[in-house]
């Protein structure tokens, strides 16, 4: 052991924010790493059994630990998020649980060398040491983090898949991908 600590909670800022019943906007929050129970227990929820799409709602309500000054984050608050915020949290869930960090890969525009930056701040991040030994997470059929991700292969309302950003924007606007 090297004495390194594992980061288990990650801060975020929602693109739009959750508006509560009093009209208060909540944008800042925290998400924790998911546990096996977080991925298994929602499968027993009657809402998930009736509609598999509800899995995302229940799962995110378990791992989002803070949202603004709300005392509790329940499925109700996740249901009421704007689509852009839901997609943001889905992509973040995939990043932190599969990569162990809230980072995205990019490339130098001059030389093309790939590197990672914080999805929250844009600062350069070196995750080469912190990812050693991390598992993939969300490998349960029907749950996979890649399936929750707003980035690639997300199910469209018609049962198809959203394959690119243009399709994702169409679905966000209530249109079906072509």
TrEMBL record:
Region (Disordered), start-end ranges: 125-178
Acidic residues bias locations: 160-170
Protein name: Phage tail assembly protein
Taxonomic path: Archaea, Methanobacteriati, Methanobacteriota, Stenosarchaea group, Halobacteria
């Amino acid at each position: 052991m090297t004495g390194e600590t594992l980061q288990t909670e990650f801060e975020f800022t929602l693109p739009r924010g959750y508006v509560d019943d009093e009209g208060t906007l909540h944008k800042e929050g925290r998400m924790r790493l998911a546990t096996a129970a977080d991925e298994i227990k929602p499968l027993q929820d009657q809402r998930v059994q009736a509609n598999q799409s509800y899995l995302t709602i229940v799962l995110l309500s378990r791992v989002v630990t803070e949202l603004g000054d709300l005392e509790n984050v329940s499925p109700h608050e996740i249901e009421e998020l704007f689509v852009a915020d839901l997609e943001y949290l889905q992509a973040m869930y995939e990043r932190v649980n599969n990569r162990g960090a809230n980072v995205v890969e990019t490339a130098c525009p001059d030389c093309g060398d790939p590197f990672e930056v914080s999805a929250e701040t844009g600062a350069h991040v070196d995750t080469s040491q912190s990812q050693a030994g991390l598992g993939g997470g969300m490998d349960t059929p029907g749950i996979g983090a890649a399936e929750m991700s707003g980035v690639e292969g997300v199910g469209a309302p018609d049962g198809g898949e959203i394959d690119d950003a243009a399709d994702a924007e169409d679905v966000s606007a209530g249109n079906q991908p072509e």
